[in-house]
Write a structure and sequence with these properties.
Blueprint (H helix, E strand, L loop, with lengths): L1 H16 L5 H10 L4 E8 L2 E8 L2 E7 L5 E8 L6 H10 L4 E10 L2 E9 L3 E8 L4 E8 L2
Antiparallel strand pairs: 1-2, 2-3, 3-4, 4-5, 5-6, 6-7, 7-8
């Protein structure tokens, strides 16, 4: 009896957490991010937005109204960057430290938006999987 009750409560929590989410979106999300935890859905006129944690990384994904994957974001520190990108950053920005990384995945590409800093400034740079690095913005510290 207790097992039946626990299963019923779990089912109700699961269905209420995903209420209103397109079945195609749920299927795609579960196939792409099978170990996602702390999943939170939001829907608006442009599509479905999901925040979650996967392998300890805060992440987000976006799907259009038809249930197609648009993009995903993962947030982490420098130790999780691919070695080739980390080496390219260290070569180009020898005196700067990496304070954060946002990985942007679209269906056919991944880019890395990296925040660097030194004593005087913050830098926002974009790195591609090919190792191309571009400074997007620079902000002076006060």
């Amino acid at each position: 009896m207790k097992k039946l009750f626990a299963v019923s409560v779990a089912f109700l929590m699961l269905t209420s957490a995903f209420a209103g989410v397109n079945v195609k979106v749920l299927y795609s999300f579960n196939k792409t991010f099978p170990s996602a935890e702390n999943v939170k859905w939001r829907e608006d006129a442009s599509g479905y937005f999901v925040s979650f944690t996967q392998a300890g990384f805060p992440s987000k994904a976006v799907y259009d109204n038809r249930g197609n994957f648009v993009y995903a974001l993962r947030y982490y520190k420098e130790e999780n960057l691919p070695a080739s990108i980390l080496l390219a950053l260290r070569k180009k920005f020898t005196d700067k430290t990496i304070s954060g990384v946002t990985e942007v995945s679209v269906p056919d590409n991944i880019t890395y938006h990296i925040t660097l800093e030194d004593a005087k400034s913050w830098y926002s740079v974009e790195a591609t999987t090919l190792g191309d690095i571009t400074i997007e913005k620079q902000f002076e510290k006060n």
